[in-house]
Amino acid sequence: MDFHDTPEEATFRSEVRTFIEGNLPRDWARLNQGPAFAEEATDDPEREAFLKQWRKALSGRGWVAPHWPREYGGAGMSPGEQFIYNEEMAKHRAPAVGGSGVGMLGPTLILYGTDEQKKEHLPGITSGEISWAQGYSEPGSGSDLASLQTRAVRDGDDYVVNGQKIWSSGAHRADWMFMLARTDPDAPKHRGISMLLVPMKAPGISVQPLVDMAGDHVFNQEYFDDVRVPVKNRVGEENRGWYVGATLLDFERSNIGASINLRNTVDDITRFAYEASRSGSVPVRLDGRTKVELADRAVEADIARLFSYRIISLQKRGQVPNYEASVNKMFRSETDQRLAQTGMKILNMYGNALRDERFAPMKSRISHMYLRTVASTIAAGTSEIQRNVIATRGLGLPRG
Ligand SMILES: Cc1cc2nc3c(=O)[nH]c(=O)nc-3n(C[C@H](O)[C@H](O)[C@H](O)COP(=O)(O)OP(=O)(O)OC[C@H]3O[C@@H](n4cnc5c(N)ncnc54)[C@H](O)[C@@H]3O)c2cc1C
Fold first, then answer.
1. CA-CA-CA-CA torsion for 52, 131, 367, 89, nearest 10 degrees?
2. Is the distance from CB of 310 to CB of 74 less than 8 angstroms?
3. Catalytic residue among 252, 275, 300, 334
4. 378 Cα: distance to centroid of ligand 1 (angstroms)
5. Residue 329 belongs to what H/E stretch?
6. pLDDT tens digits for 218-227?
7. DSSP code of 93?
8. Is 252 a catalytic residue?
9. β-pair type (132-135, 151-155)
10. What is the CA radius of gyration of the chain?
11. How far apart, in Å, are the Cα atoms of 359 and each of 94, 283, 345, 370?
C-alpha cells in the first residue's frame, strides 16, 4: 500500500489539524491526566465544561458522527477521510465523543429505523446531548449472545419487558438503552429476538453499579421488572432483531486511534522513566531489561498501526474487513496488557499506589491501565472468540 496522502487527503488532513489547533486548548493534556481519561468517567467540572464546548465545535461540522450521511447530521466522510480524521485526533490526544450512539445505534437506525425513530433519535446523538447504552450481554449470555433470556411479551401497543442485562458501560449516565430481548421463545435462538429502544427512566428499570477492580464505576447491571416499551420503539421487524443488532455498522474498524494511543503511552512512559531516573523523583527501574521491553512495546505499537493501515487499504478498495479486524483487535488489546505490565515493572513498588497522588507516578495512569486492560481482551469479543474467527475465516480451518 502507498502510505502517502493523495493531494486531496493532504488538504483534508491539514483542515483537521487546523480545526484541532483552533479548538483544543494547549493545556488539554493537563486536564486529560489521570485515570479518568475516558469520556465516560469524568467528574472534574473544568474538564466537563471543556468537553461540552468540544462536542459543540465538532457537532457544528458534523464531526461527532463523521461517517454518517450529511442528511442525518454526519459529515459523510469516506473511509479514507475518516481514517485521517481519527489518526489526527489521536495524535493530538483529542477526547473521543459519541460513544455507542454514534458507533452503533445511529448507523443501525439509518438502515433499519422508521422515519419517526430517525427524527426522534438521530439529532440528539449528533449534537452530543443524548447518550446511549448497549444492553446486549446478560449473566448467562456473552460470547453466545443469541442465548439471551430477557423476555419482551406483546401486550396491546406495548411490549412488557422482564429480565436482566449486565456489563452495560455507562448505563448509569445514559438517557436511553438499545437492547435485545426475546420475543419468541419457541423459535430457533437467533430468530426469536427483537431490538427495542428503552428510556432509562422508564418505570420498572433499576440500575446497579458494578465497580471494577481499579475502583472505577463504568459498568452496570439492570433489572427489568414489567417495563412497558411501546411497540413503535422496536427497530426492524419483530423477531429479526438478531440481524439488526449483529450488523456491524461502525465502518471504522481499523481503530487507528487505539494504535496511536498505544504509541503515545509508550512515549509517555519512556519520557517519565528517563526524567524520574535523572531527577531521582521516583526510584524507577530503568535497566537493560526494561529498556528492551520498552523498545519491544514501541515496535508492537507500530505493528498495531500497520494492521490498521491494512484494514483501511481493504476499505478503500471497497472490501469489508473480516478476520483482519479480529487480528487487529486481538493484537492491540494484548499489546495494551503487555504495555501496562512493562509500565508497572518500571514504576517498581510505586506502581501499586492507586489513589494517593503523592506516591502515584503519572497520576496512577499506568496502575489503572494495568487493572483495566485485563478487560480489554474480554470486551467486544474475547481473544478466544477472535482466535476462532481467525482460525475458521482467516486460515480456513474446520470448526472445532
Ligand atoms: C470493558 C467491557 C465493556 C463492556 N461493555 C458492554 C456493554 O456496554 N454492553 C454489553 O451488552 N456488554 C458489554 N460487555 C460485555 C461483553 O460483551 C462480554 O463480557 C463478552 O462478550 C464476553 O462474554 P462473557 O463475559 O459472558 O463471557 P463468556 O462468553 O461466558 O466467556 C467466558 C470464557 O469462555 C471463553 N469462551 C466462550 N465461548 C467460547 C468459544 N466458543 N470458544 C472458545 N472460548 C470460548 C471466553 O473466551 C471466555 O474466556 C463489556 C465487557 C467488558 C469487559
1. -60
2. no
3. 252
4. 5
5. helix 323-347
6. 999 999 999 9
7. T
8. yes
9. unpaired
10. 22
11. 27, 11, 16, 17
